[in-house]
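Colleagues,

For the teaching module next term, I've prepared a clean inverse folding example: a structure given as tokens, and then the sequence designed for it. I'd like students to try predicting residues themselves before seeing the answer, so please don't circulate the second half yet.
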């Protein structure tokens, strides 16, 4: 993912949509959060990004 940072925005949208539906919670569309997610190196690759997004949604307040 380090070499394809342009894909991170689409992956954030995909996983965000998936987990908001699955968990019945809303995800705030925060440009600051997206910037942080895009700037991170993601050594665990897509799976790590997916897990981070799921945790963000689970831990977010309604």
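(Answer key — instructors only)
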């Amino acid at each position: 993912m380090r070499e394809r940072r342009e894909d991170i925005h689409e992956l954030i949208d995909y996983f965000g949509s998936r987990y908001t539906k699955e968990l019945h919670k809303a995800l705030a569309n925060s440009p600051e959060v997206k910037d942080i997610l895009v700037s991170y190196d993601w050594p665990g690759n897509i799976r790590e990004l997916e897990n981070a997004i799921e945790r963000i949604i689970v831990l977010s307040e309604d």
